[in-house]
Design goal:
Number of helices: 6
CATH class of the largest domain: Alpha Beta
Low-confidence stretches: none
Largest sheet: 7 strands, mixed
Distance between the termini: 39 Å
Number of strands: 11
Length: 240
């Protein structure tokens, strides 16, 4: 299977850090109720920015971080191994959301910025797999991402981060590519101090749009009750 992040992986961690600074508080709050006696799971862990939030929210508990992209997983593994506490607690698994061998009992699940990689059948299968393993009261935390419908998204720059004499820039646009999909066309640039473009990369990926009402209905079908919170962070727990 090809790696969708083979090109963008060089930039993703750096450009994702500002977003995770904003997400840290609502995600930590949504993880309230996590069960420390059961394994924590981060699905689509990327470079581990969310894994760190999950591990900090529930100290002294084992974490399984699932990531299919070799490029992102290399960063994830290196970052976890560099922190003594996480080196002992976090197990990195090379698999996707549907193929991973999941722990039998889950104390909390984080699945940020990944649900659109699954088609509707895959999304419902994933939610059922999680619901079957969640401990009572344990949260599944995921998020909604625009667009909510397959409509064009004009190009915009998402972020710029200076490192040394260079500035790293990421941006993109989207076009409808099916009844429930868009294709994102991403552009990444490395700029010199005077704004000269030193390097430019492009990457396309397909994304299944998921309106809030559809995701909440899918959660309910899986036996979960969900609610949308700040920054479109969704918290779901098993119905009692």
């Amino acid at each position: 299977m090809s790696d969708e992040y083979a090109i963008s992986g060089e930039y993703l961690h750096l450009l994702s850090e500002p977003a995770w600074q904003a997400l840290r508080t609502p995600v930590t709050k949504a993880l309230g109720g996590a069960v420390g006696e059961a394994t924590l799971l981060d699905v689509g862990a990327g470079t581990g920015l969310g894994t760190e939030v999950l591990a900090a929210a529930v100290p002294d508990t084992d974490v399984v971080a699932v990531e299919p992209s070799p490029v992102l997983r290399a960063v994830l593994l290196s970052r976890m191994a560099a922190q003594p506490d996480l080196r002992q607690r976090v197990t990195v698994v090379a698999a996707d959301a549907l193929g991973a061998d999941l722990p039998a009992r889950l104390g909390a699940v984080l699945a940020m910025n990944m649900i659109g990689h699954l088609d509707p059948d895959g999304r419902r299968t994933f939610l059922r797999r999680i619901a079957e393993r969640l401990a009572p009261g344990a949260p599944l935390v995921l998020n909604l991402q625009p667009p909510a419908e397959p409509t064009p998204v004009p190009f915009s720059v998402f972020g710029t981060v200076p490192v040394g004499r260079h500035t790293y820039e990421g941006g993109g646009s989207a076009e409808p590519s099916g009844p429930d999909t868009v294709t994102w066309r991403m552009r990444y640039r490395v700029l010199d101090a005077d704004g000269t473009v030193l390097h430019e990369d492009h990457a396309d990926y397909r994304w299944h749009v998921t309106p809030a009402e559809v995701l909440l209905a899918d959660l309910a079908e899986a036996g979960l009750t969900g609610e949308v919170g700040p920054l479109d962070v969704v918290r779901a727990v098993r119905r009692s």
